[in-house]
Amino acid sequence: MRIVEQKYSLSEEDLVHLQGSIVLTKMLKQRLVVEFENNPNIEEIDFSGARGFYLIKSLGHKIYQFWFEDPKDYDDFRANILAYKMSSTISDDK
User: pLDDT tens digit string along 37-49?
Assistant: First the structure.
């Protein structure tokens, strides 16, 4: 048996229920599309420190869209993704 605590994680179905809400309006303003070099294991991305709702949406092969309710969550995630990109670029140069 596997139990997954969703906490602030939203699904596509949740978005339907949130139509017209302030939460969805905030999230629409804080979206980020990331194209990964390799297929990421999305389950390994740590969102335990999230302050608000978030959604991870696959847009195709290695391309994901991340939505955030809280601007700080967006900023933190963006900074982490940029740091990850910088570290992988450095290791590729070696």
Answer: 888 888 888 888 9
Given a contact cutoff of 8 angstroms between Cβ atoms, the answer to whether 24 and 15 are in contact is yes
Distance CA 37, CA 30 (A): 23
For the chain, what's the residue count? 94
pLDDT band for position 84 (cuts 50, 70, 90): confident
Phi, psi dihedral angles at 31 (to 5 degrees):
-115, 150
> Alpha-carbon torsion 12, 4, 32, 53, what sign?
positive
Please state, in angstroms and rounded to a whole number, the distance separating the CA atoms of residues 28 and 93.
Answer: 36
DSSP 44: G
Residue 21 one-letter amino acid: S
The domains of the chain are located at 12-93
| Euclidean distance between CA atoms 57 and 10, whole angstroms | 10
Q: Global pTM?
A: 0.83
Q: Which helix (H) or strand (E) holds 36?
A: none
